[in-house]
Here is the input.
Amino acid sequence: MFAQHFFVKADAYFHSGYYPTVFDNREAFQTPHMAADSGAMDEHNQGDETGFLGKPRDWIDRLSRRLYPSVHTHLDQGGAPGRTEELKDLGEGSEVREILPWLRLSAELDPQRVETYTVTAYWLRQRMGKVDEAEEFLREGLRANPNSYEILYELGRVCDENRHDPLRARNLWEAALRQWQKQQADKPDADKFLATEILAHLATLEKKQGDFEPALAHMELWKKYSPKPGEVEKRIEELQMELRAASVPRAAR
Here is the structure.
């Protein structure tokens, strides 16, 4: 319970305090925005995140909104009004750094909460450039959750996007897929979001490496779990055309 509280606290801090209470409309905050931005969780937010307060009920309500955060902002986009110049002086990522203690505390309170590790790693590597710290934090999470397909997937992203090591990325994503199949494939409410993310990354990697057959195999499975199978089918058809074109002898073209 406390781990969840600090995780949400970090998301509230990310919004500079502009965050709904239990009495406000929370449709646009069902999934913490930090997690949704990182790609670590399937997003279920609906509606407008900027207007949960609604219009001021009267002049007293309008006046009171000057006394607390009442404007939608993100720390990585300048934070609260009037802090843009301060951010320039402190350097990129200085404000984002302030949410990390909340996330680390959440991980200490509940080491089995895997999204804390994946979300924190994203902000460390993508918004602060601390790739080594992100990888170490993920490996700490993997030691606490050795069968976590979520953490394996995120480690693969580190290797692919930051280390530029496709071999290690492939190995990690294949391990993530195996764990997902063991834990989720037979469930009626399976986590299909992460399955499609893993398979999409594997298919893209294999295509870049010129290994079209494995790429097609991953795409077929991707289509099975995707909420938009038609779009994946188009990718399959395009890759099949490339494969046929590559197999035609030059003299016959």
Observations:
- The two ends are 65 Å apart (CA to CA).
